[in-house]
Amino acid sequence: MEADAALKQEVLSLVPQQPPFRFIDEIIHLDDDRIEGTYRFREDEYFYRGHFPGNPITPGVILIETMAQVGVVAFGIYLLSRQKNARPGDMKLPISLFSLADGVEFKQIVKPGERVIVKAEKIYFRKMTIKARVVMEKESGELICSGELSGVGVDQ
After folding, report:
1. Is 128 exposed, middle or buried (0-12, 13-18, 19+ CB in 10 A)?
2. What is the pTM of this model?
3. Is 151:98 a contact under the CB 8 Å cutoff?
4. Which of 22, 34, 40, 51 is catalytic?
5. Active-site residue flag, 29
6. How many CB atoms lie under 10 A from the CB of residue 70?
7. pLDDT, tens digit, for every residue of 29-44?
8. What is the C-alpha separation between 155 and 36, in angstroms, rounded?
9. What region, left, alpha or beta, does residue 65 occupy, with left being phi > 0 and alpha being psi -120 to 50 degrees?
């Protein structure tokens, strides 16, 4: 069953990364098996000044980070709350550590101003470890990049 809008917003509010290093604007789908989130890369993002002057392109590591924030961090917060049968905001959350990017392939570039959609499908979630198949697409549906990402929650 899909999470309601309030729960999606609650999960989003608990993602620990903050501007200028938060790359999730909205969670558009969330259930026990998958998550979808969006982010619009703003023209004034700090990394465009040097990557590349006169021809700004979103760095691949930022694309992977965006995929991880949606498909590992936000998804992990939700799945942990489901596992503990609690609201996400009522839990003491572990520190979320991104631990693995496997088989990541890039097919397209992302320019300033473009909105991306990140879709993740759970492979497993156990013992505060998540592994997901994650894809990033343009609004047109064109594949930007994909791979398997993992993360682990570490108690504080």
Report:
1. middle
2. 0.95
3. yes
4. 51
5. no
6. 30
7. 999 999 999 999 999 9
8. 26
9. alpha
